[in-house]
Amino acid sequence: MRRLFLDANVLFTAAHNPDGKAALIIALGAEGVWELRASAFAVEEARRNIIVKYPAMSAQFDELLTVMSMASEQPGAPFPDGLAEKDRPIFQAALGCKATHLITGDTTHFGRFMMNPAKTLGIIVMTPAQFLEAL
């Protein structure tokens, strides 16, 4: 079964855009189509942004979290060469929970690693749109 690790921007987007691709990925995970994981680091970053930009969506954000498991932080885990320091905790948590996919909208920092598991220790890094298109 696919195990998806969701980056903070995916959580944020799903909460404030319940009809979008990120929300669809979470809804299908809630139905058991795949496993969903996030980390406290990703959740906290998304929560900060929801509170600032879309405070009325805080309850929606909390509801999304009920359908996924939290992955442990893995500060000693490896990460791809050249990955920005701020994104290492996300990748390391995804690796630590044995995610098959890391779903992120961050094409600036993860773009060169997308759909290239040879560079990402076997994890397939994709945007929500890429993931859904590949099904």
Quick overview of this protein structure:
By secondary structure, the protein is an alpha/beta fold. The chain contains seven helices and five strands, in the order βααβααβαβαβα. It has a single domain (3-134), classed as Rossmann fold, CATH 3.40.50.
Chain-wise SSE layout:
Blueprint: E1 3-6, H1 8-16, H2 21-30, E2 35-39, H3 40-53, H4 58-65, E3 69-71, H5 88-96, E4 101-103, H6 107-110, E5 124-126, H7 128-134
Parallel strand pairs: 1-2, 1-4, 2-3, 4-5
Helix pairs in contact: 1-2, 1-3, 1-4
Radius of gyration: 14 Å
| Chain oligomer state | single chain
Shape verdict: globular
Please report which band the strand proportion falls in: under 5%, 5-15%, 15-25%, 25-35%, 35-45% or over 45%. 5-15%
CATH homologous group name: 5'-nuclease
CATH class bucket: Alpha Beta
CATH topology: Rossmann fold
Major beta sheet summary: 5 strands, parallel
So, CATH architecture? Answer: 3-Layer(aba) Sandwich
Helix content: 40-55%
Mean pLDDT across all amino acids: 97
Count of all domains: 1
Strands, total number: 5
State the end-to-end CA separation. 13 Å
The succession of helices and strands, N to C, reads EHHEHHEHEHEH
* Structure classification: alpha/beta
Strand order of the largest sheet: 3-2-1-4-5
| Low-confidence region ranges | none
Number of helices: 7
